[in-house]
From TrEMBL:
<dbReference type="InterPro" id="IPR033118">
    <property type="entry name" value="EXPERA"/>
</dbReference>
<keyword id="KW-0812">Transmembrane</keyword>
<feature type="transmembrane region" description="Helical">
    <location>
        <begin position="20"/>
        <end position="40"/>
    </location>
</feature>
<dbReference type="GO" id="GO:0005783">
    <property type="term" value="C:endoplasmic reticulum"/>
</dbReference>
<dbReference type="Pfam" id="PF05241">
    <property type="entry name" value="EBP"/>
</dbReference>
<dbReference type="GO" id="GO:0047750">
    <property type="term" value="F:cholestenol delta-isomerase activity"/>
</dbReference>
<feature type="transmembrane region" description="Helical">
    <location>
        <begin position="176"/>
        <end position="200"/>
    </location>
</feature>
<keyword id="KW-1133">Transmembrane helix</keyword>
<feature type="transmembrane region" description="Helical">
    <location>
        <begin position="47"/>
        <end position="65"/>
    </location>
</feature>
<keyword id="KW-0472">Membrane</keyword>
<protein>
    <submittedName>
        <fullName>C-8,7 sterol isomerase</fullName>
    </submittedName>
</protein>
<comment type="similarity">
    <text>Belongs to the EBP family.</text>
</comment>
<feature type="domain" description="EXPERA">
    <location>
        <begin position="47"/>
        <end position="196"/>
    </location>
</feature>
<dbReference type="GO" id="GO:0016020">
    <property type="term" value="C:membrane"/>
</dbReference>
<keyword id="KW-0413">Isomerase</keyword>
<feature type="transmembrane region" description="Helical">
    <location>
        <begin position="141"/>
        <end position="164"/>
    </location>
</feature>
<dbReference type="InterPro" id="IPR007905">
    <property type="entry name" value="EBP"/>
</dbReference>
Amino acid sequence: MATEPSSSLSPDLFDQTTIISLLSTLAIVFVAYAASLRFLPSSSSGVLRFLFIWHLADALCHFLLEGSFLYHCFFSHQPLVDDLKTDLFPTPPGFLGYSDRVYGAQSGGDNPFAQLWMVYARADKRWAGVDLGVNDPKVSIWMIVLATCELYGGFMTFCPEWLIGSANLDTSNFMYLWVYLFFFNTLWVWIPLWIIWYSVKDISNALNLRQGKKTL
């Protein structure tokens, strides 16, 4: 079961690594916003600008942050010591042909991205290791596809964990539960749902316009 909430706060809850990690997320949003100012016409609607910022920030998050997670999954490792009890997240036996190695950010040492993922792993320990578990109607269709993929990804991230009683999740304090687990993950639920609603409405409007032309 997930760790029961308590009023005590971890002493490293707001350490330097944590603050830098959170600022890196804000930096991605700022870059996406700056790009919207550079590439979108000044007359663009607020909705269009938001969609641009969301998808660019989403792409940067996947390529930079989650890309670094994949890098450590495949290239960062340390020897598995069978006779010592550690807090390392276990690597599936036979991963990449090895059963005597521990892979993931937990083996990334001082690498900044490894440290970033170790901060997040305080709330969800699976991220410390290897876890095997969008005004043109055409644009709206692709935004629906991408948003659906985001929802599916979120489902596949947490549903298997819920089925085993959330053994890897730590909900013992506000930061882990409401910031790391709830806020950062439900962003990829509520916004994709809104994007699907917006895109369906946009496609419906386009179909209504086409139907109106046929009746003229």
